[in-house]
């Protein structure tokens, strides 16, 4: 839960305004104190979510960093090899 913070107790989070991420329920509303506890309880189950949700980034950072600040001479094939290696496939 990247956006968990104590301020959820008393203020509506920005991530509930406007268009929401695809994995944020359109029916979720902010209620003082209640939303804080809902999100806090979600933390307990955060390891059960698929990669790409919560703090389960999986190998997404490998591909992101390779695009943002690749080492000199780094190629897309290097990224593919690194991802395969980290997944345990030679």
Structural notes for this entry:
- The radius of gyration is 18 Å and the shape is elongated.
- With 90 residues, the protein is mainly α.
- The chain contains 3 helices and no strands.
- 34% of the residues lie in helices and 0% in strands.
- The chain has 2 domains: 6-48, no CATH class; 59-90, no CATH class.
- It has helices spanning 34-44, 60-68, 76-86.
- The mean pLDDT is 86.
- It starts with 33 loop residues before the first helix and ends with a helix.
Q: Strand share of the residues?
A: under 5%
Order of helices and strands: HHH
Characterize the biggest β-sheet: none
Mean pLDDT: 86
**Judging from the principal axes of the Cα atoms, what is the shape?**
elongated
How many H/I helical runs? 3
Oligomeric state of this protein: single chain
Relative helix content = 25-40%
Terminal Cα separation, in Å? 32 Å
The total tally of domains equals 2
Structural class: mainly alpha
Q: Care to count the β-strands?
A: 0
Pick out the low-confidence regions: none
Integer-rounded radius of gyration: 18 Å
Domain Alpha/beta-hydrolase catalytic: 1-82
InterPro entries: Alpha/beta-hydrolase_catalytic
Organism: Kitasatospora cheerisanensis KCTC 2395
Protein name: Alpha/beta-hydrolase catalytic domain-containing protein
